[in-house]
Hints:
- With 176 residues, this protein is α/β, with parallel strands linked by helices.
- The protein has helices at residues 17-25, 53-64, 80-87, 141-156; strands spanning 6-10, 29-34, 44-47, 70-73, 97-102, 122-127, 129-132, 135-138, 162-166.
- The chain has one domain (6-175): NAD(P)-binding Rossmann-like Domain (Rossmann fold, 3-Layer(aba) Sandwich).
- The chain has four helices and nine strands.
- Strands 3-2-1-4-5-6-9 form a seven-stranded parallel sheet, sandwiched between helices.
- It is globular.
- The protein starts with 5 loop residues before the first strand and ends in a 10-residue tail after the last strand.
Amino acid sequence: MPPQRRALVLGGTGMLAGCVESLVDHGWHVVAPSRHKPADLPSHWVQADWSTPALLVDRVQLALGGPADLLVAWVHGSFRVPVLRAVSHLLADRAPVVEVHGSASANPVRGCPEPVLTGHPTQQVVLGFLRTSGRTRWLTHKETVDGVLAAIDRALDGRPREVHQVGEFRPWTALH
């Protein structure tokens, strides 16, 4: 039997909880750091604070039990770069990375921020809004999970870097 694959999912206890569940259902050992432990998380939880990346790495390293074969990260703002750089040495060589961004971090003019871990093949997901019946709305949990899972599949298939837009960048009315 092949060894169990390991995934590190940063931000996996909120909107990405469905991604964690799917990875676990497919036999992955998943470590999902967060501030508070969710009651029904099917993975290994590690207490985390993005403002202390070194402590995060120590805790995650113990929980992973070896190099991570996949990193999925939804880390906001000023924490994104230091946290991703801190966990980089926990990844297997050329382990794929899926960076998830909210619509505020990318736009049609500036595009998506450059991937942080350039030594790893990276898929990026930008989560936006959907327009329905002349109104805009946030993505549902399912739409978010489906979009990120599609990027995870592309990453695991070894596809070249790509930005996956799920929904529109911002509400349609804000563009006019």
